[in-house]
Amino acid sequence: MVFVPIELGVEVRSVMVDENDQFRVIAKRFHQSGIITSEYLFRAVAILKRVDKNILPGRYDFTGKVSILDVLWKIKKHDIATLLLTIPEGATIFKIGSIMAGNLGMDSSAFVNRVADTSFALNKYNLPGLEGYLFPETYLFWLGIKMDGIIDMLVGEFYRKTAGILDSCPTNHLSPKEVLVLASIIEAEALHEDEMPSISSVYHNRLRISMMLQADPTVNYALGGIFRPLKYDDLKLISPYNTYGQTGLPPGPINSPGLAAIKAALNPAKTDFLYFVADGLGRHIFSKTLEEHNRAKFNIRRLRKLSEKNHGV
């Protein structure tokens, strides 16, 4: 695949080749688009040059006047239109669906329904669901790629990146799936990678003593992915994802964690921390006791009010 930017204002003629298309159908499509003038000659030359058998699906773009040999050369070189697309760490299936809709013209609801389909996930990947398994990375997609092809790429990248990491699972009280669930919470909490092991230690310490995790992002997820400051009534929500209402981990990941969060979930820092609070500047203050934690929250509120006063807010 070759990524070649096309100048603005230049007329582009495109032909989409789908998987399992017969060559005569492809030839007809090129003819109807006006790229070639003779289907018969195109097919004859393609057979002569053995280009008719191994055609990569995708969108073939052409500008200006091209010959049959130009077209066949592009097909032979698998020179299809592509797009670099980044799935960010911490993206939920809803966010990924939105990215696909905005960049590949895919129906975001159909994408979400597909990856949330437990039967599809179980039958094809032997997984209970695909939230957490769509690995965040920058991908090169060919334009026209089908939904299942995208899912295959994302899930395949997850297994490639985590091979030998999740399988080894050095934590003796968490399964590989539970590690992934914890990693997704860490990913949602941390703005800085260097804090991930400390955040992980808080949750590991709480799990060890059967203390509720009280992780805000799990409640946000239960609310439908509405990531905002929680209200008191939100904490009363009846959901297995409400970690303010029950001990232990939620039943599944709440996003697609990156490799750093997964490693942090597997290798927490050795601390006695049971609490942390955002300092309002993108980092966290960690505490061992509730008294320390409450003092940290009081100081953060005091500094915030002082800052607002100084800036005339």
Structure description:
The protein has 313 residues and is mostly helical. The chain is 44% helix and 10% strand. It has three domains: 69 residues, Endolytic murein transglycosylase (Dna Ligase, domain 1), CATH 3.30.1490.480; 79 residues, no CATH class; 135 residues, no CATH class. The chain is built from twelve helices and six strands. The strands form three sheets. Strands 1-2 form a two-stranded antiparallel ribbon. A two-stranded antiparallel sheet has the order 3-4. The radius of gyration is 26 Å and the shape is elongated. It starts with 11 loop residues before the first strand and ends with a helix.
Describe this protein with a few key phrases.
single chain; mainly alpha; Dna Ligase, domain 1; two-stranded antiparallel ribbon; 12 helices
Radius of gyration: 26 Å
Order of helices and strands: EHHEHEHHHEHHHHHEEH
Secondary structural class: mainly alpha
Number of helices: 12
Record the SSE blueprint.
Layout lengths: L11 E6 L5 H10 L6 H10 L9 E6 L4 H9 L5 E5 L6 H12 L3 H9 L1 H8 L12 E5 L4 H16 L13 H14 L6 H13 L7 H7 L36 H8 L8 E4 L5 E4 L2 H21 L3
Helix pairs in contact: 1-2, 4-5, 8-9, 8-11, 9-11
